Amino acid sequence: METVVITGMGLVSCLGQELGEVAQALREGRSGVVRDPEREALGFHSPLTGFIREFDPSALLSRKERRAMGEPALYGAVAALRALADAGLEREALARPEAGVIIGNDSAAEATRWAVDETRAAGSTRTLGSSAVVESMTSSPSMNLSVLLKTQGACWTMAGACASGAHALGQAMALIATGQQEVVVCGGVQEVNWAGMCAFDGLGAFSTRLSDPIDSPRPFCSERDGLVPSGGGAILVLESLTHARARDARIRGVLRSYAFSSDGNHLTAPHGDGARRCMRQALERARLSPGEIEYLNAHATGTPAGDAVEAAAIREVFGGTTPPTSSTKGMTGHECWMAGASELAYCLLMAEHGFIAPNRNLGTPDPACEGLDLVRTTRDRRPRLMLSNSFGFGGTNACLVLEAVP
C-alpha cells in the first residue's frame, strides 16, 4: 500500500483566502460570521452566515474558463489553483490517467433557482444558455475542475451531506493507497447564498442569537441555540509518497487513515453509535491508540442535540483522558459540504504554526459535554497526530487521521 501525503492546500474561507491569513485568524479565534440583510428581507428565521470577503475569481480564471462555473465551482477552481501553486505542480503535470479530481458537494441551489425563475419570466427555456445545465448540476465543481486541469483519471463528486468533503478526501486516499491514482486534487465546496440555505433555515436549526453575529455559533456551550451556515472552497493535493518524492515535493502531512460509517437511524437527528464506530475505525486503521491523538477537531456545530451526542461518543472512545478538543465552527460557522476538507486544512495549519485553536463562544460548557478537554484559549502547542470528525444528515460519518510533518 502506498503512503498518502498532502503536498498542497488552497482555501476560500470566511477566515481568509491566503493560508497565512487563515492561520492567524484561527490562532486569534476570529469570527467570519455576519448578518445578511437579504436573508432578513426574505423572512429567514436566522440571517446569520459566514461571509467571504473580496472573492475575485477573474484574478485566476479567464472569462472562458468561468463560463460554465456557478458559485460552488468557482470556489473550487480558485482553491484548486492555489493548492496546485502551493504544491509546486503545473496544470500540465496532471494531464494523464494517473491524476484525478474528487470534490465533495451536495447542492447547486442558486443555479437551479435562477434557471427556474428565468424560465418562468421568459415563458421559455430558450434564454437559459448552454451553461445553465452544467451550473445546476451537483457535479459541476468536479467536472469543471477536471476540464480546467485536463486530468484524465478519477472525476466525480461525493455527496454525503456535511461529511462530503471528508468522504472526498477519504476516497482519494483509497485510490492513491491502492495504486489506482498517483495524485488527486480533492476537497469540498459549499455555496454561500440564501437559496442554498432556505430549506435548512426552515428546520429551525440555525442560531437566532442576533445581537452580535460574532457571538454565534456556540459549540459545546450551555447557551448554544443552533448552527450558523457558511461555505467556500477547500482543496488539497494528495499524492503517493513515491510520486511526491520523485518530484522532490514538500510534504505538508500524511493522511494516516479514513473511516466511514452510517447510523441507519434518522434523517436529521444524530445517533452516537455511528460516530463511535467511525472514530474507533479511524484509530485502528491508523494503528494508533486513543492516547496518541494530540488534537481532536470536533464536528460540533452548535446544535443542542448534536454537540451532546458527539461529546458522549468522544468520551466513550477516549475514556477518562480526552485529547485537546475544539470546533473551529465557532469561528467559521458550519461550512457544510466543504467542512470535512477545510477542517483538515485547519488542523494542518495549526500544526505548521504551532498552536491549537480555541472554542470560540464557549462561555459555560454544557454539563452534557463534561469530561472533554475543551480548549478555551489558544494553546501554544504543535500537535502531530490529529483526528477530524465530520458527521452529516442521513447519519453519514467520516473521520480522518492526519499526521503533521515537522
TrEMBL record:
One cellular-component annotation, GO: cytosol
Keyword annotations: Acyltransferase, Cytoplasm, Transferase
SUPFAM superfamilies named among the record's database cross-references: Thiolase-like
EC numbers for this chain: 2.3.1.41
A single GO BP: fatty acid biosynthetic process
Keyword Zinc-finger: no
Molecular function GO terms recorded: 3-oxoacyl-[acyl-carrier-protein] synthase activity
Chief location of this protein within or outside the cell: cytoplasm
Residue ranges annotated for the Ketosynthase family 3 (KS3) domain, each copy included: 1-404
Keyword Iron-sulfur included in the entry's annotation: no
Reactions performed catalytically: (3Z)-decenoyl-[ACP] + malonyl-[ACP] + H(+) = 3-oxo-(5Z)-dodecenoyl-[ACP] + holo-[ACP] + CO2; a fatty acyl-[ACP] + malonyl-[ACP] + H(+) = a 3-oxoacyl-[ACP] + holo-[ACP] + CO2
Localization (cell): Cytoplasm
InterPro entries in UniProt: Beta-ketoacyl_synthase, Ketoacyl_synth_C, Ketoacyl_synth_N, PKS_Beta-ketoAc_synthase_dom, Thiolase-like
Quaternary structure annotation from Swiss-Prot or TrEMBL: Homodimer.
Family, per entry: Belongs to the thiolase-like superfamily. Beta-ketoacyl-ACP synthases family.
Stated name of the protein: 3-oxoacyl-[acyl-carrier-protein] synthase 1
Originating organism: Candidatus Geothrix skivensis
